[in-house]
């Protein structure tokens, strides 16, 4: 069986200084950011013509303002066009979680995206507050009447829940112990609450005795997050996000292809513009001239980590690569390890294409070191004459 020949490492290679490598990366990153936004300007009209993205974005923004999941600078009013109303904050305070969730389902969804009998007040109480569950934090108010058959032994018996009774009931009927009227608080609906927890409940529902603020706050936070997910999962919103994702991915791919693949392919030692300026080159892991397939693998690895960082954990790919480059003996980043490459100092390195070229250079260097120092013949003759007395 033929054994694989061990590759001799190029000894005329110096690892790239981290400071210059960081400078090259920063320069390339700046160019890529500028190019990314240029492509955004170019591609947006194309997307608008293809899928009417502008209309989808406008619908999303209008729905966001009507959803009660953001704070606005003005109340939604018939006298003010919705386009002129601005979103002041996307972060709802904990003191508004419950009320905003209730309005999202029973006002926004009920009026804009109704589904059969969903999103009514009854639906909200049963499906969101889960009032029928034993471990629910809430309970209904009941109307109690005296037993007409025997007034002397008057017995209070529960009737149907208050919210199912006729609207003809007296205004003196019990409501809730909390100030929960949506109408009464409409004037301050877009002013963030300073309360640590939202104790709002729909009419005719009360919080059970013994429920502490921490438990209630966690419950409110959960249903509020679910409301945001429900909003984003609406069909027109999903479509808009999909098209925006396509646009963003297109910009990322085009930008990285230019600066991480095409330009290095056109240079002798896989240099990007930043590496040219900071006198750095890319070689294979042994210090020899990089192959085209390695540039492609390096580009694909960089692209995957770029997309991963963009959508999941911002700056993670950069953090991991820089950390590896600092502590790795040869200063190899994550995509260098995958592509079997390394970055070297162009000014102090000699890059060869083959092992034979390196061995020839190494032999010449050895011979140069062993070669005797030439003797100055004139001085030698003078010293000979002086010593011999001739």
Series of H and E elements: HHEEHHEEEEHHHEHHHEHH
Number of strands: 8
Spatial ordering of strands, largest sheet: 1-2
**Percent strand:** 5-15%
Low-confidence stretches: 143-186
Please give the alpha-carbon distance between the first and last residues. Answer: 72 Å
Question: Biggest sheet: strands, sense, closure?
Answer: 2 strands, antiparallel
Keywords summarizing the entry:
390 residues, mainly alpha
Quick structural overview:
The protein has two domains: 18-43 and 250-370, no CATH class; 50-239, no CATH class. It has twelve helices and eight strands. It has helices spanning 18-51, 53-66, 97-112, 121-127, 213-232, 235-266, 273-277, 292-311, 316-327, 334-339, 355-370, 377-388, and strands at 71-72, 87-89, 138-140, 142-145, 157-161, 205-207, 280-284, 341-345.
Strand and helix layout:
Blueprint: H1 18-51, H2 53-66, E1 71-72, E2 87-89, H3 97-112, H4 121-127, E3 138-140, E4 142-145, E5 157-161, E6 205-207, H5 213-232, H6 235-266, H7 273-277, E7 280-284, H8 292-311, H9 316-327, H10 334-339, E8 341-345, H11 355-370, H12 377-388
Antiparallel strand pairs: 1-2, 3-6, 4-5, 7-8
Helix pairs in contact: 1-6, 2-6, 3-5, 6-8
């Amino acid at each position: 069986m033929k054994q694989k020949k061990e590759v001799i490492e190029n000894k005329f290679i110096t690892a790239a200084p981290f400071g210059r490598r960081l400078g090259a990366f920063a320069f390339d990153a700046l160019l890529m950011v500028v190019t990314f936004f240029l492509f955004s300007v170019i591609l947006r009209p194309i997307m608008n013509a293809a899928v009417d993205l502008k209309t989808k974005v406008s619908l999303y923004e209008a729905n966001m303002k009507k959803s009660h999941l953001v704070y606005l600078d003005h109340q939604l009013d018939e006298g003010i066009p919705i386009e002129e109303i601005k979103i002041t904050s996307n972060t709802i305070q904990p003191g508004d979680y419950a009320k905003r969730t209730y309005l999202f389902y029973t006002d926004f969804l009920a009026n804009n995206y109704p589904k059969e009998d969903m999103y009514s007040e009854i639906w909200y109480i049963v499906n969101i507050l889960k009032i029928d569950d034993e471990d629910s934090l809430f309970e209904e108010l009941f109307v109690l009447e005296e037993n007409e058959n025997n007034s002397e032994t008057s017995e209070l018996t529960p009737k149907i829940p208050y919210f199912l009774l006729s609207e003809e009931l007296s205004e003196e009927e019990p409501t809730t112990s909390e100030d929960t009227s949506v109408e009464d608080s409409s004037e301050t609906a877009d002013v963030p609450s300073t309360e640590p927890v939202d104790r709002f409940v729909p009419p005719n529902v009360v919080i059970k005795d013994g429920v502490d603020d921490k438990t209630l706050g966690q419950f409110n936070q959960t249903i509020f997050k679910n409301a945001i997910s429900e909003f984003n999962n609406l069909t027109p919103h999903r479509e808009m996000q999909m098209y925006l994702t396509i646009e963003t991915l297109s910009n990322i791919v085009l930008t990285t292809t230019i600066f991480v693949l095409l330009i290095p392919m056109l240079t002798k030692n896989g240099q990007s513009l930043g590496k040219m300026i900071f006198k750095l080159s890319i070689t294979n892991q042994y210090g020899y001239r990089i192959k085209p397939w390695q540039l492609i693998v390096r580009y694909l690895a960089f692209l995957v980590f770029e997309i991963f960082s963009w959508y999941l954990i911002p700056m993670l790919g950069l953090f991991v690569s820089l950390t590896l480059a600092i502590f790795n003996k040869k200063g190899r980043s994550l995509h260098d390890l995958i592509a079997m490459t390394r970055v070297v100092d162009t000014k102090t390195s000699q890059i060869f294409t083959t092992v034979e070229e390196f061995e020839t250079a190494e032999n010449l260097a050895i011979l140069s070191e062993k070669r005797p120092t030439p003797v100055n013949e004139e001085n030698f003759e003078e010293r000979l004459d002086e010593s011999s007395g001739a």
